[in-house]
Every structure is written in structure tokens, then in C-alpha cells.
Amino acid sequence: MNGLLTQGVTYLADIPSPPRGVLHLGPLPLRAYAFCIIIGIVVGVLWGNRRFVARGGRPGRVTDIAVFAVPFGLIGGRLYHVITDNELYFRPGKNPWRAFAIWDGGLGIWGAIALGGFGAWLGCRYYKVPLSAFADSVAPGVIVAQAIGRLGNYFNQELFGAKTSLPWGLDVYLRTPGGVAGTLAQCPAVPEFPTDYIKATPTVLCGTYQPTFLYELLWNLLIAAVLVWADRKFRLGRGQVFWLYVAGYTLGRGWIEMLRIDTANHFLGLRINVFTSIIMFVVAVVVLFVRRHVGREDPALLQGRPPKVEPDRSGTGGEADSDLAARPRDDGEPSDEPRVKTTVSEQSTPETGAAGEIPAGSTADQRPDAE
């Protein structure tokens, strides 16, 4: 009786894996991995925008730059995954077209950061804001987006660690096409299945494994909190928050990656992602040390390109236009400062430099006498 009770308590403590990674709404497949990625991007952009405005930037500017950064980031993340795990797509018996099936999982964070950073640079150039300020603003949101993305791995029942007897282990079940019946013999050494497979009925427990997706999710949320705390306390700027994110993330990713048992290529005896984490951690620490005394950017620099102003179509004349039009600066760059409408008596002339004085020959001869 006690043994049965103990088994029941242990089972309740285990994390049950979901029955499927794809939910079909009629003919439309709703893929959990893609859904989690989208939610993460939305959260990251919204939070990044709030932080950017708090640092002196324009509302909506992070969304504008994300239009450049997000597509590049998704492409870069997929490229990194396909290159570093090419045996999944380009070996005998594999379908190379699956390299485009991003909904099945497989985004490498380093490729996403590299090409996404290039896209962000393009956006920052276009909108004339410092890339470092943009990176510092979005860094906490980026790592929270990564945490949300890890839930997609949970629904796909993938990227877990070795078997474990810990009470918080992940129960991994056999998945089959359409959920048809199966046997324990059908569970591979690493029981990861195509994302459109469904938990077999009756259920077959392949084993209980380390939930590395959960470890990384919690670690990322912890680092996000550290970034916000450090930024507020030390007023970090000029890329310091971003590089602190890189250091914190790689510190956790290194040991979590070593727990995983999924297929991975190795370099110098280490999984490629472990090796990359070590390199990026060292780079981040060096950058933070070199820039330890650098202050935050002048908030005025974050204003950048002013938003476009629609022309007045009310037909009321030029007064409304003059109040809304942007006045060019002396250096030729546009400004969002409203143009001030002045009268003749308030203007100064190049000839006199005195307000209210009109040069000889002017037609404005009705000027009142000075009081």
C-alpha cells in the first residue's frame, strides 16, 4: 500500500507531456511551436518599446525596427540550425525540403541574434537611432521571448535530457500517426517524434527525462529580472545591457545544453552549442569589462527620424499646415519641432538683425510706430 502511494505521489509530481504539438481547427493546423514563437516576438516588441520610450525614444520605434530585425532573425536562426544539424536534412534517407519546415522546431539562437542584429542595424540606420540603445532596450524582452519559445519544445516533446528519477522529470510518451496503438519497442533511444504525431492510445510511457526546456525557461526569466535590476541600479547604456544578456544567457545555456541527449554535432569534444556558449560568454565578459565606465546615451540621440506628418486636406488654408509641418534644422536634417508662425513685426532681417525693423524699399509701409 505504501509503495502504491509513493508511486502515485511520484507520478503526480512528474511533468506529463502534451498529447500533440499540432491542433487542427478544421483544415487549419495550429502549431504550438510557431504559436509560442509569435507570442514571444509580440511580448519582446511590446516590452522593448516601453523600455525604449523610457530611455528617451519615440513610441513605436521598436516596432518599426522590428520589421527589419524579426525576418532576418528567423532566417538566421533557421540557417544556424540547418547548418549545425545538417545530418537531419542532407544525409541518405532524409528529406532536404524539411529544412524549410520551421514549424517543426529548430531555431538556433546564435544565428537569430547575428542576422537579427544585422536587420536591427539596418532599421536603426534608417530611423537614425543608436543600435546600442535599441539593443539595451529589447534585451530583457528578447530573453523572455526565448523562454516562451521553449514552451514550443515542450509541446513538440523534444530537446529533453537524460532519463531521471527526479520528481519533476518529464514523462515522454510514444507518439504515432493519428495516435494509433503502439508498443514500448517502438520508443527509440531518444523518443522524439514528428510534430504531427499524436500520443498513442492506449498510452505507452517511453521514460521520464530531464526537462531541460523547463530549466532554460526558468533560467531565462531569472536573467531577464537581473537585466532589469542592473539597468535600473547602474543606469547601463551603450550596449551594456545587451552584453550582460549574452553573458547571462550563455552561462546557463552551457550547462543546460550538456544535459541534453538529442542529436548534435561536436567540436573539440563539445556539443557545438556548448562550444559557442563558451566563446560568446568570454566575449561578453571582455566587452563588459572594457565598457564598464561608459555612460548611458543622451536621450536626445534616441529621437532619431521624426514620424511622417500627413498633409492637411481640410482645405482651411496654410495655418494648420504651418503648425504641423516639420522645420528643417540648420544642418539640413528634418526636425519634429512645430513651425512657429510669426508676424512681420516679430521677424529679424539679415540686414539689421533687429526685430521689427524693415529695410528701405520694403512694401510693408503700414508698420506701426514703436512704442
TrEMBL record:
Pfam family, one: LGT
Family note: Belongs to the Lgt family.
Pathway: Protein modification; lipoprotein biosynthesis (diacylglyceryl transfer)
Stretch list, region Disordered: 300-371
Biased composition (Basic and acidic residues): 324-340
Domain of life: Bacteria
Job description of the protein: Catalyzes the transfer of the diacylglyceryl group from phosphatidylglycerol to the sulfhydryl group of the N-terminal cysteine of a prolipoprotein, the first step in the formation of mature lipoproteins.
Keyword annotations of the record: Cell membrane, Lipoprotein, Membrane, Transferase, Transmembrane, Transmembrane helix
Chain sites annotated for binding a 1,2-diacyl-sn-glycero-3-phospho-(1'-sn-glycerol): R150
One Gene Ontology term of the molecular function aspect: phosphatidylglycerol-prolipoprotein diacylglyceryl transferase activity
Cited PANTHER family: PHOSPHATIDYLGLYCEROL--PROLIPOPROTEIN DIACYLGLYCERYL TRANSFERASE (PTHR30589:SF0), PROLIPOPROTEIN DIACYLGLYCERYL TRANSFERASE (PTHR30589)
A GO biological process held by the record: lipoprotein biosynthetic process
The protein, known as: Phosphatidylglycerol--prolipoprotein diacylglyceryl transferase
Compositional bias per record (Polar residues), positions renumbered to this chain: 342-351
Enzyme Commission number: 2.5.1.145
Major subcellular location class: membrane
Membrane topology type: Multi-pass membrane protein
EC category: transferase
